[in-house]
């Protein structure tokens, strides 16, 4: 078996990327492809926890900018992450991977409540644990939920799998002159105001010295490559970016 760089990972998947070409909802081909990649990582003996965004279904900020109460809109966003989590659970189980969905908002009929020690036990048994409903609180994001859960389960790293292939000097979808930055410190991300991840999540990782790798999830095998230690995307960590 190949030697992996990490023993326990928190993989944050972009909700928006699950929509594929259709731009909304869940593309079965995309989710099945990602599930197959996660299975390969599980088969390498890596303990995998997942947090999935909700941007393919509903974002609280977008609805509140059109007049909806922000907290209500955010609860809808959290429910969107539960839908994505259940879809991913189904896709993983179809491939023979044991999973558990835990929810930060109680919904006993469809998901376990979030219980930290229980989540860790599932991971030790080789099950993929999917943390849904974000942090359970409005005004947060799933990036913050990913940082929080990663800390709580003592993950070695956060892998943010998204639609861009790393962090750029500016949003590459808006600025064609933006350049990719292979290594950054959390302080640099905050000081430069880089929007790839929200400031709360960034600060939480910085305060707890948890490294994060941002990479493109639309490229086949990228998740496995990162787990095996290949340098792709952008690594963000504490200390000096030239270290
Ligand atoms: N400096 C930057 N470098 C890279 N991407 C950036 C930067 N600034 C903003 N972005 C944007 O950040 C996006 C990725 O983060 P975003 O939070 O939108 O998605 P996500 O958390 O992966 O997905 P979702 O919210 O749909 O679950 C990219 O698509 C890109 O447009
Ligand atoms: O802790 C949380 C996490 C998420 N939300 C809401 O859900 C949507 C979708 O999450 P993304 O991170 O944007 O993919 C988000 O826009 C919030 O509305 C939340 O309120 N609290």
UniProtKB/TrEMBL annotation:
GO CC term, one of those recorded: cytosol
Record function comment: Catalyzes the reversible phosphorylation of UMP to UDP.
Binding locations of UMP: 54, 74, 135-142
Keyword ATP-binding: yes
PANTHER family documented for this protein: URIDYLATE KINASE (PTHR42833), URIDYLATE KINASE PUMPKIN, CHLOROPLASTIC (PTHR42833:SF4)
SUPFAM superfamilies in UniProt: Carbamate kinase-like (SSF53633)
Domain of life: Bacteria
GO biological process: 'de novo' CTP biosynthetic process; UDP biosynthetic process
HAMAP family: PyrH_B
Annotated ATP binding sites: 12-15, 55, 59, 162, 168, 171
Keyword Cell cycle belongs to the record: no
Annotated organism of origin: Pelovirga terrestris
EC number: 2.7.4.22
Aspartate/glutamate/uridylate kinase domain ranges (all copies): 7-216
Subcellular compartments: Cytoplasm
This protein's pathway: Pyrimidine metabolism; CTP biosynthesis via de novo pathway; UDP from UMP (UMPK route): step 1/1
Molecular function as annotated in GO: ATP binding; UMP kinase activity
Activity regulation (UniProt): Allosterically activated by GTP. Inhibited by UTP.
Family from the record: Belongs to the UMP kinase family.
A Pfam family hit: AA_kinase
CDD domains reported for this sequence: AAK_UMPK-PyrH-Ec
Protein name: Uridylate kinase
Region (Involved in allosteric activation by GTP): 20-25
InterPro entries reported in the protein's UniProt record: AceGlu_kinase-like_sf, Asp/Glu/Uridylate_kinase, Uridylate_kinase, Uridylate_kinase_bac
Catalytic reactions of this protein: UMP + ATP = UDP + ADP
